[in-house]
Amino acid sequence: MLKNTLKSCMEGNTLSEKQAEEVMNEIMNGHATSSQIASLLTLLRFRGETVDEMTGFARSMRAHSLQIETDDLSVVDTCGTGGDDLKTFNVSTACAIVLSGLGVAVAKHGNRAVSSKSGSADVLEELQIPIQHNQQEARQSLIDVKLCFLFAPLYHQSMKHAVAPRKEIGFRTIFNLLGPLTNPANAKHQLIGVYDRAFAKKMAETISRLGTERTLLVTGGEGLDELSITTESFVIEVNGTTQNMYTIAPEDVGLNRGKLEEIQVNTPAESATLIRKILKGEANASATGIVLLNTAAALYAAKRVPSIQEGVIKVQEAIQSGQIYRHYLTLQEARQHA
């Protein structure tokens, strides 16, 4: 099947949603060789992935992943694409901790460092917060402390067949875009950082087809896969099947613009140190500001606040009161008792 697919793609054809799902099923079931997978990923990246292809691939990946039962919990995820090469600390992971401290259930989907200095799993280890759960432990953690970490290789075991070719070709592929769209807890509220506006538009259409209540896809003006504290950011807000595009700047929500160098790190340990300072209310204004901004956006995506600006105020008050740092200590205690 893959040979015919590759030939068709070489001739300039694209895959329908159904064809894409069948192709990904072949990959997930181990029926494609490493050469075929690498060739397909290269062809798609070279000509540009379509929304049909992304949707079909995502449906297959979801069907092959382990799932977390969340019952009536309104679950949020802050997983992004990575790949912005700007060496920033783990903003989305810090936001996940803050959100859970505000009582929002967060199923943080993530991995170790691939294209960044520090992956979410790496920094959580440095912060001494549990990073790996089986499905039952993940569900219980969501109930007990409002946060679980869904380590991607654990929940997407069928992806093992694509690991070697992805590593060998070395450039970003469609899989970078699919990760945030395949949360094992089926999060219906998301803040997705995307390093490129064009990809954000494709992902917005894809997640609209897959189903969401409210998702914000955000791209910093400097190519950051977060809402930027240093410049304006591009936002696509998806409410069900409706999309709305706009820009947002820090001053629009009562924050001052910051400096990129104040949010950059070189190691997971440096990232963890900065995050601890933010949680304590002792970090520089740029680092604190970017967490306030992105956490507020996630609160808005979760429909916990009527606007991002009101979210900023709520998050700021929670950090300054010590509520968030106390919650962080509770997360560490949960590790010790595991």
TrEMBL record:
One of its GO terms (cellular component) is cytosol. 5-phospho-alpha-D-ribose 1-diphosphate binds at residues 80, 83-84, 88, 90-93, 108-116, 120. Mg(2+) 1 binds at residues 92, 226. InterPro entries: Anthranilate_Pribosyl_Tfrase, Glycosyl_Trfase_fam3, Glycosyl_Trfase_fam3_N_dom, Glycosyl_Trfase_fam3_N_dom_sf, Nuc_phospho_transferase. Anthranilate 1 binds at residues 80, 111. Mg(2+) 2 binds at residues 225-226. Keywords: Amino-acid biosynthesis, Aromatic amino acid biosynthesis, Glycosyltransferase, Magnesium, Metal-binding, Transferase, Tryptophan biosynthesis. Binds 2 magnesium ions per monomer. One of its GO terms (biological process) is L-tryptophan biosynthetic process. Residues 5-65 form the Glycosyl transferase family 3 N-terminal domain. HAMAP family: TrpD (MF_00211). Catalyzes the transfer of the phosphoribosyl group of 5-phosphorylribose-1-pyrophosphate (PRPP) to anthranilate to yield N-(5'-phosphoribosyl)-anthranilate (PRA). This is Anthranilate phosphoribosyltransferase. The lineage of its organism: Bacteria, Bacillati, Bacillota, Bacilli, Bacillales.
